[in-house]
Design a protein that fits this description.
CATH architecture: 3-Layer(aba) Sandwich
Number of domains: 1
Number of helices: 10
Largest sheet: 7 strands, mixed
Structural class: alpha/beta
CATH superfamily: Vaccinia Virus protein VP39
Shape: globular
CATH class: Alpha Beta
Radius of gyration: 19 Å
Number of strands: 7
Amino acid sequence: MESDAGDRFSNANAYEAYVGRWSRLVAQPFIAWLEMAADRAWLDVGAGTGILSQVILEEASPAKLVGFDLSPDYIEFARRQIQDDRVAFIVGDAATIAFEAPSFDVVVAGLFLNFVPAPQRAVTSMVEAVRGGGMVAGYVWDYGGQMEMMRHFWDAAMQVDPAAHEMDAGQRFTICHPDNLRALFQSVGLEAVDVIAIDVQTRFRDFEDYWQPFLGAQGSVSKYLRGLNDERRTALRDQLHRQLPTTDDGGIPLMARAWAVKGIKADSV
């Protein structure tokens, strides 16, 4: 996982508690949707803590897998979690991938494309890394719609602090929309581009299970919370307590939607 300088991702354990557990649920139907044959060479761009890489190893039977990420902390976490001779995790700028020749049958990016300053350049690098006839694919959260844990957070934040609108991921990450994803992949020459919604259930045990991970969260949420004084942070907490749906046992049933996109690189002439 990578980000711009203001939203830097670096704490692997905090990421896992915050959103990693839900990313794992999305990765499984995403890999199934790609329908890749076994024994293929995979590249995982913005591999983060290795969530998508682990699912690829479990579900897609790759011949080899390379994971790139800018964060040494995330890569070290992935190396500790995944012990498999088929995989290599590398610290590097995944938005400027460089290989002597196209080396992969499929290149994927999970929850990555909205965090790079130039998504088209990142996808172009992904296309350059894949062989002719190979697949490029990715998924992003639906920040402006049905990624409900974050949508509730930013809606509550704007109730108590109108300035939060400027930090709202739904406003900032315009790439996280099906039409924009499709246009992005088509703009770099990919063919047979398809986009689907992947919905997963994100049930929190209680309010603290929902709230505490935000306090150590990564990205724009962490940056925003660090800038609040105690009074406004308490007001945000109280607003969330009021607006979140709660079952009789105290659980909080929410949904998380991701938009997934894939396309095929034209065969070399």
